[in-house]
Structure formats: structure tokens, C-alpha cells
Amino acid sequence: MVRQRYEFDTTQNAIIAGLATRLTIIGFVCFLVGLGVLFIIFFRTGNLFAMVVAGLAIAFGALAIYAAQAFRKITTTQTRDIEHLVEALQTLNRVYNVQIAAILAGAGALGYFLWNLPK
Fold first, then answer.
1. Distances in whole angstroms, Cα of residue 49 to Cα of each of 2, 22, 75, 94
2. Considering the chain, what is the average pLDDT of its residues?
3. What phi and psi, each to the nearest 5 degrees, are found at residue 7?
4. In the prediction, which pLDDT does 65 show?
5. pLDDT tops 70 at residue 26
6. First and final CA of the chain: distance in angstroms?
7. 18 vs 8: CA distance, rounded Å
8. Residue 3 clears pLDDT 70, i.e. is over it
9. C-beta of residue 49 within 8 angstroms of C-beta of residue 87
């Protein structure tokens, strides 16, 4: 059985390209904020919490840029749009899995901190 190829039209490609651009912008902003926190706060004060926040911002930024690149492939190649779309969605799914894990770890750390406050 021969699999039929699908190609998104110009309007659909514009929507996907817009998403890729926004993901790239958000990724760079997160990445730069993370670097700023790392250099301005952590290296000046040695605050471990600042290092964790910086690390998460840098990781989230890099993952958003990675996801954007996967979406951009859809608009810059021919005859493999569906395969690239599935790859991009898998990448975006990984990004959100990492964010969910970070949120759960943060909630656990906050719970531990609150539980151990002096009474």
C-alpha cells in the first residue's frame, strides 16, 4: 500500500510558521532570563534557589527552541508534512513532560519546606 503524501497549503504553513516563530521567541526569552538570573543573582550571591530557577529557565528555553525547529521543518520541506507534524508534536509533548516534572518537583519541594517550618 502506497501512503499518500500531504502538503499543507500556504495559509496552513503560515499558521505553523507563526507558531514556530512564537516558540522561538519564548525560548530565547526564557533562555536569556535564565542566563541573567544565573549571572546576576547566583554568581553574586551564591543563592542555590536562583541557580535552580536559572537552570529551569535555560532548559525550558532550549526545549522551546528545539520544538520550534521541529515545527519549522513542516513549512520548509516538501511531501513530508504529516511526518514532520507528528515529530513536532512528539517534541512538544516532551517539552511539556519536562515542565510537568519540574512543576511536580517544585510542588514537592515547597510542600517539604512548608511541612518543616518551625512551629
1. 55, 28, 40, 25
2. 88
3. -125, 125
4. 94
5. yes
6. 70
7. 14
8. no
9. no
Name the band, by pLDDT with cuts 50, 70 and 90, for residue 1.
low
Q: For residue 7, give the nearest of 88, 87, 79 by alpha carbon.
A: 79
What are the grid coordinates assigned to 28, written together?
530565547
One DSSP character per residue, the chain reads -PPPP----HHHHHHHHHHHHHHHHHHHHHHHHHHHIIIIIIHHH--HHHHHHHHHHHHHHHHHHHHHHHHHHHHHSSS-HHHHHHHHHHHHHHHHHHHHHHHHHHHHHHHHHHHTS--
Cα–Cα dist 41/37, whole Å:
5
* Contact yes or no for 98/63 (Cβ under 8 A): yes
Q: Is the dihedral of CA 69, 71, 77, 83 positive or negative?
A: positive
